[in-house]
Amino acid sequence: MPDQKFITIDIGSAWTKAFLVKLDPENKINIENSLRLPTSWGDFSISVDNLLSKFSEKDAPKTFVSQFAEVETLAAKEKGGFVKEEEAASHLAKYFKIGHQNVSIIDGGASNFKGVFPAEEIGKFLSFNAESIFLENFLGKKRFRPYIIPVDSKELEVEEAFLRNSLKNKLKFADKGKLSTIVLTGGLLSGTPRLSRVALIILDILEKDEAACVYLDREFFLPSFGALLATHKQLQTVDWGNWLETLGTFVSFGGARSLQFDWGYSELQHVDIADGEVSIIPAPATQKIQLLFTSDAKEKKKLGITGGSLGIVLDARVKPLPLTFGQAASRSLISSWFRQVEQAEITREAF
Q: In sequence order, which residues have a C-beta less than 8 Å from that of residue 215 and are 6 or more positions away?
C-alpha cells in the first residue's frame, strides 16, 4: 500500500502551523514537513497561503483546525475540511483512552494568557525578585502580542509561572490511587529548551498522591492530529511517530517515602526519597515496572508504571508548595528545585 499523505493547518491565536504528514506502511503517522508563521489577524489567508505555497504536495487532502469559526469559510475556499478545536480535543481524548484511563490533554499555547491570575500567584513561582506592576505589564503585553517568545531566562520563568496557574485547573484526576495519563502540547511545553523545565511545571501542579504517565508533543502537532482523527476515520487505529515523546511516569508523594521497584528480576530495588527531594530514576519507555510503597494512611500501594525520556520522576515535596510572593525563602526554594531537576536530568543523560 502506498503512503497516504495529508496536509493540516492549525490556526491559533498566536501562530498558524502547517504540516505535511504521511501514513506509512507500518500504520504510523509521521511528519514530513512543518512550517509556521505568526497568525495574520484580519485576514487568516495571508499566513495560510504563504505556508501552503511551500508544500509541493498540492493534491493532498487538507484539514483546518481552529477555535475561530471564520476559519470554516477559509477551509471551504481551499476545498478542505474544518474541525473546531473542541472537537479535535474530544477525538484525541478518545484516542488516548484506548489502553489508558483518566486522560488529560493539556495545551500550553498562547490561549492560556487570556486568563487572569493575581500577580502574587504568578510571582511566587519566580527565582528572582519581581514587582507586581512588572508582572502585570509583562503579561498585558503578552496578551496583546502572544506570538512574542521570551528573550531571556527571566521572561521564560514568568511565562512558565503563569502557565502553572493556568494548567492547574485543567488536570482532572478521577482517582488519585490510580495512574493517569497527561498529554502535553503547544507553547512553552512543546518548545521547551529542556525537558527538565517541563518536568518541573508538571510536578508543581500535581497534588499529593497523584501519579501520571506523561507524553510530550515536540512538534506542536497534537491539535492537527485530533483534526485528522475527526475527519479521517481510518486513522483512529494508527500509531504516532516520533513527534510524540514518552517522558515517563511522574509521582507526587507529598513527603518522604520508602519505595520498592519490581523490574521483573529476582530482587526488588529499594529507594528512599527524603522530604523535599525531587529525583529521577532512568528507565526506558518499554520497561514495565511495579512501584510499591506505603501511604501516610499506612495503606500498601502498587502502581504499574513505565519509563521514558526522563524515566521515573519522583517528587517528595510538601503539597501545596510552601511558597509566598516576595519572600526570599520562596525564591531560594524555586532556585534549588530548578537545580535539582536539571541536575537529575543531566545525571540521567550520563547514565
A: 181, 182, 183, 184, 244, 245, 246, 247
Q: Which three cell numbers stand for residue 321?
A: 508548595
Residue 231 is placed in which grid cell? Answer: 475527519
The tens-digit pLDDT sequence of the chain (351 residues) is 457 999 999 999 899 999 999 999 999 999 999 999 999 999 999 999 999 999 999 889 999 999 999 999 999 999 999 999 999 999 999 999 876 678 889 999 888 888 889 999 999 999 999 999 999 999 999 888 888 889 999 999 999 999 999 998 787 665 677 899 999 999 899 999 999 999 999 999 999 989 999 999 999 999 999 999 999 988 999 999 999 999 999 999 999 999 999 999 989 999 999 999 999 999 999 999 999 998 887 889 999 999 999 999 999 999 999 999 999 999 999 999 999 888 877 776 655
Q: Are 308 and 248 in contact, with CB atoms under 8 Å apart? A: yes
Cβ neighbours for 343, distance < 8 A, ≥ 6 positions apart: none
27: left (phi over 0), alpha (psi -120 to 50) or beta: left
Those residues whose C-beta lies under 8 Å from the C-beta of residue 51, and which sit 6 or more positions away, are 9, 16, 18, 35, 36, 37
Q: Which of 278, 217, 215 is nearest to 247 (CA)?
A: 215
CA–CA distance, 10 with 230 (Å, rounded to integer):
14
Instruction: Please give the distance of CA 8 from its chain centroid, rounded to a whole number.
Output: 20
